[in-house]
Amino acid sequence: MQFRKLSVCLAACAALSPFSVHAQVSDDVVKIGVLNDLSGIYSDLSGQGSVTAARMAIEEMGGKVLGKPVELVFADHQNKPDVAANLARGWFDQGKVDMVTDFPTTSTALAVMEIARQKNRVVMPSSGLATAILGEKCTPLTAQWTTNTYALAAGTARALVKEGKKTWYFVTADYTFGHSLEKDATEVIKADGGSVVGSSRHPFPGNDFSSFLLKAQASKADVIALANAGNDTVNAIKQANEYGITRKQVVAPLLTYISDVHSIGLDKAQGMYLSEAFYWDFDERSRAWSRKFFEKQKRMPTAAQAGVYSATLSYLKAVQAAGTDEAKAVMAQLRKMTIDDAVIRKGKLREDGALVHDMLLLQVKTPAESKAPWDYYKVKSVLKGADVFPPINPACQAGK
Q: In the CATH hierarchy, which fold is given to the domain comprising 24-147+283-356?
């Protein structure tokens, strides 16, 4: 009788233990997908570097979670929503991928999010930044991991308005991300006492920004804000320098990655303000991880690439803690966790899918101030997450 009671107890305990039932890991493997731009305008800021970052997170977990192997797949979405949707559908249906991350164009993230909701899979955009991800298109299985357009705009715009740069003109990429960045920055500028005197929208991707920059110059605005990213930002800044615009007006890129500054050069980028979620030289933790990344990629990581590492590592830790890779259970665990790694410090995932954490207000160094390769920024201040992230969207909460 005692043996029978013990057997029943062990069976019950095993049923309650999150680590004992191997079937809780679907298909006996946990699969991570990196979906990004491997060959186009955003390949420098995401691309193969994001794949490397995801691999580093998997290696840090020992290549396994809950005793099962972790596999990585990746593909080029070509910055096209239909391509991203088709790839993701194949990954979910045939490839049995559990989580997808990166998405350097918001439109691709939005295309995949709804499919992931239907298929019960997790989506963690690291470089898909438009606040639409937290708004009308939100899903309870999405975590916008690194930052968003509102947080980027709040840091840079507020800093410049406080310096007396009150009038703004936007040169904006004509797609979801650019529209979102302009909208969010405009809201911050007006709230802080500034005004927007005009805007121009350029095709995506763009090469010749001369007509848009000349209109911005003619506006005599204090600030010419670039609501674009990647090569568009690089080309616009280089052309603004060629026209001598930067001697009379401030050119403010609202999303600038360290890869952009590397391409532009300190002589042309010096003095620019920017907000970022991550800078490799911020502290010893960020430096130690970034040196490992550098050994593999021969360049320092962008915030988007670092965000892929953090998202992948946090997802795997959540699977481990939840005892399953079932999407809703993993998301519930992520919301319980405090995210604290080499990239994100003391982050908390809100019910609307925003990971709220401290941001950095940075200024690009002069060539004389830079003491080594990739020594590009001065940290002007640490921006508290509660001060720069948008208010929670009550219509977009877990389970809704």
A: Rossmann fold (3.40.50)
Annotated domain spans of the chain: 24-147+283-356, 150-276+360-388
Instruction: Compute the mean pLDDT over every residue in the chain, rounded to the nearest whole number.
Output: 91
**Fold of domain 150-276+360-388:** Rossmann fold (3.40.50)
Question: pTM value?
Answer: 0.90
Domains 24-147+283-356 and 150-276+360-388 share a fold: yes
pLDDT band at 137 (very low <50, low <70, confident <90, very high): confident
Strands 64-65 and 68-76: antiparallel
